[in-house]
Design brief:
The chain has 18 helices and eight strands. By secondary structure, it is mainly alpha-helical.
Length: about 500
């Protein structure tokens, strides 16, 4: 049972619970392996002609009960197998039970608190427990990791020091040392066990040690995980990212500093958690093409895969991220001329609408549709529709970036004499105009479908292109209009919220 599901009061309870869970997990693995081998015996001798026997060994159909723990389920399976009246000739029931009992005794000794602490404190130097883990990208890197304790920060830079709570990462020289990292990650009252090792005369291990000297040896042993056992031997590695930086030298010899670039794993994890929208309701609504009145942030993210497999062996937090890093957009702003309201144009989708940021998405959408059109294939499959919707939503986002910039112009420009812009587009682009008749008409009119339909016509024209290789149809126009509805409603919600704040006297 983990600390999340049970409240502990002492480190003794936390550590005993951890070791018990490890013992149970090992017992469960043993039973699974033995049952798999025994099942192979039954299969070789055609015992699976009996459906009840076959079901007992079928891991897809034989599932644990709702109120049954995983280990209880495996124990029950083992008992039922041993109780079967028909058995293969090479299965010795008595020997199997004796081996199981022997395994239980071995696990009890292995995960005895004193024994486990005494053995594993000697191996803690094989664990790097730090903010900057050099093994972030490659499991074979054997270099120094670092624990950043710098407190100074600069507003111009996002650094590890900016984090209010640093999530420590860990790397192990082999998966056999992973339990040591998990052990140091244990928490009590929001304090990590690793943090207690930095406190002199900590009583974390006193309940298990024979005397104070033994408790101190354990603290010092596990404490090496915070330095990787390399306090006096800081080193890089041939597989690590390195830069040779030239420094002053004489004419005959150029000297270099070797710079080892180590990414802050703590900062990477913090960014990953804060930008992870997988379980966010707004994200799910957008993926399904549905409306959400909640704001959506962290758009235009990219994902960098830093390890292809066995993520946990490179870095523990990297394993939790599935070998991925989240990257935020750092694109420079696109140059735009002085923005003027489209007073002389009949439509916002006229010649004045120039969206260079959407050009790549439009070209990709045209190429995607043209490919299936030439092959005579449908684009109505879920995977293809999702790709199309993603591109159109991106184009719509660029359009509304343009809309918001116009909305920020001094309100009331739609009251200009001789304005040519159609009324529905005025309601979209000048929503803060201080005119009661205008606002009453804006609320009463059903102007949104007109804007959506005009967007469909405009996008179809862009997709047709200069060479006119692709001829979009009315069904495409209707689809584009439907997809814009969600973004339009989101924009309207933000407009109305701002209007309410202004009318309420807020800044």
């Amino acid at each position: 049972m983990s600390e999340e599901s049970r409240k502990f009061e002492t480190w003794e309870e936390v550590i005993r619970d951890f070791l018990e869970s490890k013992k149970i997990a090992s017992e469960e693995d043993y039973l699974k392996d033995r049952l798999k081998e025994i099942g192979a015996m039954y299969g070789r001798q055609s015992f699976f002609e009996d459906e009840n026997i076959e079901l007992l060994f079928d891991t897809k159909k034989s599932k644990k009960g709702r109120d049954q723990t995983a280990i209880d389920f495996q124990r029950d399976r083992f008992r039922r197998v041993m109780a079967l009246p028909r058995k293969p000739g090479d299965l010795d029931e008595r020997k199997e039970v004796e081996q199981y009992q022997s395994e239980l005794r071995r696990l009890s000794e292995r995960f005895d608190a004193w024994h486990w602490l005494n053995e594993n404190c000697k191996n803690a130097s094989s664990v790097s427990f730090a903010t900057h883990v050099i093994k972030l990208t490659h499991s074979s890197i054997d270099g120094s990791s670092f624990f950043d304790e710098i407190s100074c920060t600069k507003d111009d830079y996002l650094t590890t020091s900016c984090l209010k709570e640093k999530v420590l990462d860990g790397a192990v020289r082999g998966n056999q040392y992973a339990p040591i990292y998990q052990f140091l990650e244990l928490g009590l009252n929001e304090v990590k066990l690793a943090s207690t090792l930095r406190v002199e005369n900590s009583d974390t291990f006193n309940a298990f040690a024979k005397d104070e000297n033994e408790a101190r040896e354990w603290r010092e042993g596990f404490g090496e995980a915070l330095t990787g056992g390399q306090v006096d031997t800081i080193k890089s590695h041939i597989l690590a990212k390195q830069i040779y930086f030239p420094v002053n030298g004489d004419n005959s010899c150029v000297k270099y500093h070797l710079l080892c670039i180590i990414k802050s794993s703590s900062l990477a994890q913090s960014i990953y958690e804060k930008t992870d929208n997988r379980n966010d309701p707004t994200t799910n609504q957008r993926k399904n093409g549905k409306y959400s009145n909640r704001p959506f942030s962290y758009t235009s993210k990219a994902i960098l895969n830093v390890t292809a497999s066995n993520h946990g062996n490179a870095s523990q937090l990297n394993g939790k991220r599935g070998g991925r890093l989240k990257l935020l957009s750092c694109e420079p702003p696109i140059w735009e001329g002085q923005l003027k309201p489209p007073i002389t144009h009949k439509s916002v989708f006229g010649r004045s609408l120039y969206l260079p940021a959407a050009k790549e998405d439009i070209d990709d959408l045209r190429g995607y549709l043209l490919c299936f059109d030439k092959l005579g294939l449908s684009t109505r499959t879920p995977e293809r529709l999702k790709r199309i919707e993603t591109l159109v939503n991106s184009i719509a986002d660029k359009f509304f970036d343009h809309v918001v910039r116009i909305q920020k112009l001094p309100a009331g420009w739609t009251g200009s004499e001789g304005i040519a812009l159609k009324r529905e587009h005025q309601y979209l682009l000048d929503p803060f105009r201080q005119n009661e008749q205008f606002q009453a008409a804006r609320k009463a009119a059903d102007w949104q479908p007109v804007v959506c339909d005009d967007f469909g016509w405009w996008l179809n024209a862009r997709l047709r292109g200069k060479n006119k290789q692709f001829t979009p149809q009315a069904k495409h126009r209707r689809m584009w209009a439907k997809l814009l509805e969600v973004r339009l409603r989101e924009n309207n919600d933000m407009v109305e919220a701002k209007r309410a704040r202004v009318e309420g006297g807020e800044a």
